[in-house]
Amino acid sequence: MKRDSERGAAAVEFAILLPLLLMLVLGTIEFGRAYNAQITLTNAARDGVRVMAINNDPTAAKKAAQNAAASVSSTIPVSDITLSSTTCSTGNQITLTIKYTLSTITGIAGPFPMTGKGVMLCGG
């Protein structure tokens, strides 16, 4: 008889701890996704600003940033990618910023607004 009551106690303890454990696992997954998206957006902004600094072509710079950020979302509109200037004269800095809103898998928190920024000196 003692074994049955121990099994019941273990089931109750598991039922109490299961939501906490699930929240920890799901939170870790969401944090990992957000961290990956932030790194990807920053790298995409760097790629785009590099194209602008070398080629002085805003359209090509925005397209390069869009292509580099495709792993986060293939639908980032050009309107969410901004340049600090439309021309890049030698010796000046140019900044490219990408804005994106990351939706969550679980829906517990979020959506999270994210920004990737790249700054480079014009003229290569």
Give a summary of the structure in a few sentences.
This protein is of the alpha+beta class and 124 residues long. The chain contains two helices and three strands. The radius of gyration is 23 Å and the shape is rod-shaped.
- The amount of beta strand, in percent, is 15-25%
Poorly predicted runs of 5 or more residues = none
- The total of helices stands at 2
- Percentage of residues assigned to helices: 40-55%
| Gyration radius from CA atoms, angstroms | 23 Å
Number of extended strands: 3
Largest beta sheet: strand ordering? 1-2-3
- End-to-end Cα distance, whole Å, is 80 Å
InterPro entries: TadE-like_dom
Domain TadE-like: 8-50
Pfam family, one: TadE
Organism: Pseudarthrobacter niigatensis
Task: List the defining traits of the structure above.
52% helix; Flp pilus assembly protein TadG; alpha+beta; 2 helices; TadE-like_dom; three-stranded antiparallel sheet; 124 residues
Describe the structure.
The chain has helices at residues 2-55, 58-68; strands spanning 81-83, 93-102, 112-121. α1 packs antiparallel against α2. It has 124 residues and is an alpha+beta fold. The model has no long low-confidence stretch (mean pLDDT 91). The protein is 52% helix and 19% strand. It has 2 helices and 3 strands, in the order ααβββ. The protein starts with a helix and ends with a strand. It has a 3-stranded antiparallel β-sheet. This is Flp pilus assembly protein TadG. Residues 8-50 form the TadE-like domain.
